[in-house]
Amino acid sequence: MCGIVGVITAEGGVGEVLSKALKRLEYRGYDSVGVATVNENRIYIKKDKGKIDEVNERLDLTDVPGLIGIGHTRWATHGIPSKINSHPHCDCENRIAVVHNGIIENYSGLKERLTRNGHKFVSETDTEVVPHLIEEKLNNGLNTFTAILETVKELKGSYAIAVLIADYPDRIYVARNESPLVIGVKDKSYVFCASDIPAFLPITNQVIFLYDGEVAELSLNGVAIRNLNGEIINREILEMDLTPEMAKKGGFPHFMLKEIFEQPKALKNTLRIDEGRLIEVCKILNECDRIIFTSAGTSFYAGLCGKYFLANLSRTRSEAVISSEFDEVMKNIIDERTTVVAISQSGETSDTISAAKYAKRLGAKIISISNTVGSSLTRLADATIYTQAGPEIGVAATKTFLVQLGALSLISCKLAEFKAVINRDEYKKLLNDLNSLPEIIQLILDKTEREVKASTEAYHNSISFLYLGRGINSAVAMEGALKLKEIAYIHAEGYAAGESKHGPIALINQGFPVVFVAPIDSTHNKIIGNIMEMKARGARIISVIEEEDKEIQLISDTVFRIPKATDNFFKQIVYIVPLQLFAYYMAVRKGLDPDKPRNLAKAVTVA
Ligand code: F6R
């Protein structure tokens, strides 16, 4: 997730406008920043690695000539954060500059073709194919609009792009597919494009939305939108009633809720992981004798799920060890036949890095799964799978947990195919299952939010909760409990349901709330037994169930319903979503700020 912006102004000060806009988009990424302007038919670029304030201090982004420009703040996906990989990117002649947010899935094929035809690439980014494609079309004699249109038609994946062309210093071209892009207008004095409204909100609240599969030419004379068939689209200007703070959160009251709602998109992007990358990782996993997941907090629960996926899909044994315990537990176990899979959203968690370093010293191979390109963990790893959640601002991990499960599922499927445990058709069926999850999550968000919110009325005075599940659902229960604990400050324990009768059941008295993660799967009958045990002792039962599960509905006080997905191998993954919402609304009900829970930090960089 990066932030892009473009501006055409009659007022001057384009560098200042771009810098301020980028600062307001910095929540979308801050690995590097850059701007490009056109003046006297020449493109000027300033860009570098670092946050906007740091780069501004070095380069003074406000000091650029012209009345038109584009800018970018980057959340690295392809290529480490560096000056070369910073946007804007240009064609061979530096006549076309492009900023991009999204992932161009077919960039390597396009890059190969363009390189064969003499184009020179300088960065590792997927974006750089775009200016070269436009250059190719312009050299073939197409007019600019058609060149942009034909370029966009070649792109697969997600993109919002803004394009400056040196020969046309009065206009910006934009296009979008599955990445956000809005246009802002103010009389004949300003036209903007941006990933998000806050970029230009202090100057205008007059907005035109661009939809997927549309291309637009922006100038001070107007906005011309067309679809990919070249047909003209008329779109009205809307007046947005938003404060800058609300707009930054996409209209949501908190980042946490916004991020919960971003999960369909985040998962979809993560499921686009390059197959070559998966194969590289699976080779390492297939060649070793021992696989150990290590991570902390939410990422540890993802590791537990990883263990289930590997066992059930690829018949591969593994274990999950909390990073802070790693050296104590593993000191006589690790050797060069070991692979450690270190999972960390930030890639900067001290415990996880220490565990990985410790294992590496003893000869183990390290695979990292991280949401942060170029982070410390990824730098010491032999291979890395990047999740694609974009920056997570809320301290509580939500979308990054879900995408970790997505990445682990993909790895497990690939390893199963690699080891010939499944054939190509079975692999494809599993991929279909995974690819259907974003839609199911969207349905949960659309249908369940209201019932989850309402349920807090009955539970907000409870001081302790038990969360139970069996198999992989116990890991989901643990993560649900962690969410409640950390943002609503309510004691909650996640447990394997079968184990609850060996101790935690002593806590149960009249009205004690017990949350069950209870999909219709191989654990269903036994979980009903566990519910009855708790009910018999006066517990109030909250169950996350499949919407047609009348059996558990009848014995529960509260249910959160999940759409039916009978044959979907990965259906358990989505059961975390209502539990995230439950924790969120419990915190809000208690008047707490879910984005900034006390005593916690987004990346725990101390051991
Ligand atoms: C929970 C949470 C923490 C992190 C943990 C590991 O909501 O955010 O428990 O999961 O500190 O962080 P990463 O994944 O960055 O290593």
Q: What is shown here, in short?
A:
With 607 residues, the protein is α/β, with parallel strands linked by helices.
The CATH topology of the largest domain is given as: Glutamine Phosphoribosylpyrophosphate, subunit 1, domain 1
Oligomer: single chain
Based on the structure given, which CATH architecture of the largest domain is correct? 4-Layer Sandwich
Task: Give the overall shape, derived from the CA principal axes.
Answer: globular
What is the CATH domain class of the largest domain?
Alpha Beta
Strand order of the largest sheet: 3-2-4-1-10-9-11-15
Largest sheet, in brief, is: 8 strands, antiparallel
* N-C termini distance: 29 Å
Describe the 3D structure.
By secondary structure, this protein is α/β, with parallel strands linked by helices. It has three domains: 3-247, Glutamine Phosphoribosylpyrophosphate, subunit 1, domain 1 (4-Layer Sandwich), CATH 3.60.20; 250-435, 3-Layer(aba) Sandwich (Rossmann fold), CATH 3.40.50; 452-595, Rossmann fold (3-Layer(aba) Sandwich), CATH 3.40.50. Helix content is 38%, strand content 24%. It has an eight-stranded antiparallel β-sheet, covered by helices on one side. Strands 5-6-7-8-12-13-14 form a seven-stranded antiparallel β-sheet. A hairpin with a 3-residue loop joins strand 9 (182-186) and strand 10. Helix 16 (437-459) runs parallel beside helix 20 (576-589). The protein is globular and about 80 Å long. Fructose -6-phosphate is lined by residues 296-299, 344-346, 349, 352, 396-397, 482, 486, 603-604.
